[in-house]
Write a structure and sequence with these properties.
Length: about 200
């Protein structure tokens, strides 16, 4: 009788273990997708002039092409169609005031993505304020975040540190910074591809 009782306990234990493993496997399968989330500014940009496509968008294009990632562009509802100097002043004012401008659209299936590439230009040392609106709206903790920036001398600025503050429970891949004027060249594209191979 004692032996039968022990056998029953063992079977129940094994069954319970089997039940807890299956959802984990399903979650891993659901979270193996990648998405590129970025803000990019077309129009007048430092060093490249008046462009139809922003520098960061061109980096996002290469990432999507190389890794098969989905994309979401953070498009601000505010009008940023102005000269470079005026935009610099506006960006500084937004940051000093802690503004969180709204953006268009939404990601309904953010849970499907395990890897999230996050990119934007460096405005006054970090990402544009509208990106922080996104960070407050979407919880990316538990995901693998890969930051990138376009710039003309700021490098990564404080972007990575600010992302880590926003998502303390995420893991982070190798970050990447590239000069805006480089992204339109073959050499620039090769730099992006090389980074993607080492991220």
């Amino acid at each position: 009788m004692k032996q039968i009782f022990i056998t029953l306990l063992t079977l129940i234990s094994l069954t319970a273990c089997g039940e807890t493993k299956e959802p984990v496997a399903v979650n891993n399968m659901q979270n193996n997708k990648s998405i590129v989330i970025y803000f990019s500014h077309a129009g007048e940009n430092y060093s490249v002039g008046n462009v139809k496509e922003g520098n960061t968008k061109l980096v996002a294009d290469v990432i999507c092409e190389q890794v098969g990632a989905d994309r979401f562009e953070i498009e601000c509802t505010k009008d940023y169609n102005m000269g470079y100097s005026a935009l610099c002043d506006l960006a500084k004012q937004e940051q000093q005031n802690g503004e969180l401008p709204e953006f268009k659209g939404a990601i309904d299936n953010i849970a499907d993505y395990g890897t999230v590439y996050i990119g934007g230009p460096v405005w006054w040392g970090t990402y544009p304020q509208v990106m922080f609106t996104f960070f407050k709206k979407y919880d990316l903790n538990g995901k693998h975040i890969v930051p990138f920036t376009t710039h003309e001398g700021s490098g990564l600025g404080n972007c990575v540190d600010d992302l880590k503050k926003a998502y303390p429970n995420a893991t982070f891949g190798t970050s990447f910074a590239i000069y805006g004027h480089e992204v339109r060249t073959d050499a620039g594209k090769q730099k992006i591809i090389k980074w993607l191979g080492n991220k």
